[in-house]
């Protein structure tokens, strides 16, 4: 059994990891660390875990586990690793943005590999530490990877994406307050969202730098999911585009092409990303949807762990969509 620990286990990605790891046949969840809930049962924070586990939160991580998931707000992972040390053999999977870019991927001798399996599966399977991608970044990179690989991103790419409220974490803020968020819709950080850097670095990795990425992120009034659309000039036929995407993702168990225009409920509560292609007047429109807490965070983190430990990539991730 893989012995696992979770740091930041009272937050949204931590909670989702607890649920996944308790149901993972190859994992034993040894501890869940919390600064603020030491000694409390996990179900006091997550009532859906009632009867699922007798674990209580701890404020002392167990140093000899096989893998640790860091589910902390941005900037806290490095601080945590300075304060607490783990066995040199312990693998680290960090869900924050701290180590995602090549210029930040080395932390005191620990090298972090960018954990997007659709781009880096071989490197992930050999990695000791993983920087798990951002949720918007995953949706957008999956939408554009096949075009980038063929160097078909020759003109500006326009991207719109809407995220649910869990994307902002469990802490209450003005824009996640029910009265503000419910029945509301808003734009934020137009053209400057922080995930653009990792998106650009991933796409640029295929060769010449991709042109301008015009990204408009939006907040939706639903809790989970990302619905992203990207469009770009494309000279091929729609069938050529479908063949390109099918070929690129032929070995990706979670990234699937759909014939019908997708809707969020077909991926919410799953680790799948669904992609749909549409051609109009020389422009290719790619729709990319996923669950921000699963393929956009904790599900992808488990997928990365499976790759690192040489077990089937979908172990513990055969999940059921809510559907309706
Ligand atoms: N939410 C998403 O959809 C999503 C998607 C992809 C990536 N991410 C990234 O994943 C990370 C976690 O996100 P989240 O949504 O789970 O956040 P969250 O709900 O705010 O949870 C973060 C947890 O970290 C702990 N924490 C906060 N400050 C800390 C500190 N200074 N030192 C140690 N622990 C601290 C807290 O738990 P305790 O008080 O119990 O210790 C808190 O519950 C973030 O970096 C986020 O950007 C999130």
Automatic annotation (TrEMBL):
Q: In which pathway does it act?
A: Amino-acid biosynthesis; L-arginine biosynthesis; N(2)-acetyl-L-ornithine from L-glutamate: step 3/4
Q: Which domain of life is it from?
A: Bacteria
Q: Name one GO molecular function term.
A: N-acetyl-gamma-glutamyl-phosphate reductase activity
What EC number is given for this enzyme? 1.2.1.38
Q: Which SMART domains match?
A: Semialdhyde_dh
> What is annotated as the active site?
135
Q: Which Pfam families match?
A: Semialdhyde_dh (PF01118), Semialdhyde_dhC_1 (PF22698)
Q: Where is this chain primarily localised?
A: cytoplasm
**Which EC class is this protein assigned?**
oxidoreductase
Semialdehyde dehydrogenase NAD-binding domain mapped to chain residues:
3-127
Q: Any idea which UniProt keywords this protein has?
A: Amino-acid biosynthesis, Arginine biosynthesis, Cytoplasm, NADP, Oxidoreductase
Catalytic reactions of this protein: N-acetyl-L-glutamate 5-semialdehyde + phosphate + NADP(+) = N-acetyl-L-glutamyl 5-phosphate + NADPH + H(+)
The role this protein plays is: Catalyzes the NADPH-dependent reduction of N-acetyl-5-glutamyl phosphate to yield N-acetyl-L-glutamate 5-semialdehyde.
PANTHER family to which the protein is assigned, alphabetical: N-ACETYL-GAMMA-GLUTAMYL-PHOSPHATE REDUCTASE, CHLOROPLASTIC-RELATED, N-ACETYL-GAMMA-GLUTAMYL-PHOSPHATE REDUCTASE, CHLOROPLASTIC-RELATED-RELATED
Protein name per the record: N-acetyl-gamma-glutamyl-phosphate reductase
Q: Which organism is it from?
A: Robiginitalea aurantiaca
């Amino acid at each position: 059994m893989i012995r696992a620990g979770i740091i930041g286990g009272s937050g949204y990605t931590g909670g989702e990891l607890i649920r996944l790891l308790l149901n993972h046949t190859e994992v034993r969840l040894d501890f869940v660390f919390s600064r603020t809930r030491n000694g409390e049962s996990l179900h006091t924070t997550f009532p859906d875990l009632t009867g699922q586990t007798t674990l209580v939160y701890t404020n002392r991580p167990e140093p000899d586990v096989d893998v640790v998931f860091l589910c902390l707000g941005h900037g806290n992972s490095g601080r945590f690793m300075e304060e607490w040390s783990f066995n040199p053999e312990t693998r680290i999977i960090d869900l924050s943005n701290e180590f995602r870019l090549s210029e930040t991927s080395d932390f005191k001798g620990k090298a972090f590999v960018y954990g997007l399996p659709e781009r880096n599966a071989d490197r992930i399977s050999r990695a000791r530490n993983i920087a798990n991608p951002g949720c918007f970044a995953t949706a957008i990179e999956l939408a554009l990877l096949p075009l980038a690989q063929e160097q078909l991103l020759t003109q500006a790419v326009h991207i719109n994406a809407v995220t649910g409220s869990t994307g902002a974490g469990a802490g209450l803020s003005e824009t996640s307050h029910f009265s503000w968020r419910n029945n509301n819709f808003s734009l934020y950080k137009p053209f400057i969202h922080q995930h653009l850097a990792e998106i650009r670095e991933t796409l640029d990795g295929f060769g010449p730098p991709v042109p301008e990425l015009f990204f408009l992120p939006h907040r939706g009034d639903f809790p989970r999911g990302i619905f992203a659309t990207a469009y770009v000039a494309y000279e091929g036929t729609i069938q050529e585009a479908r063949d390109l995407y099918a070929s690129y993702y032929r070995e990706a168990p979670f990234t699937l092409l759909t014939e019908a225009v997708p809707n969020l409920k077909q991926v919410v509560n799953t680790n799948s990303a669904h992609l749909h292609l549409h051609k109009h007047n020389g422009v290719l429109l790619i729709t990319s949807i996923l669950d921000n807490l699963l393929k956009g965070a904790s599900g992808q983190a488990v997928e990365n762990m499976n790759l690192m430990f040489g077990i089937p990539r979908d172990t513990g991730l055969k999940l059921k969509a809510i559907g309706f």
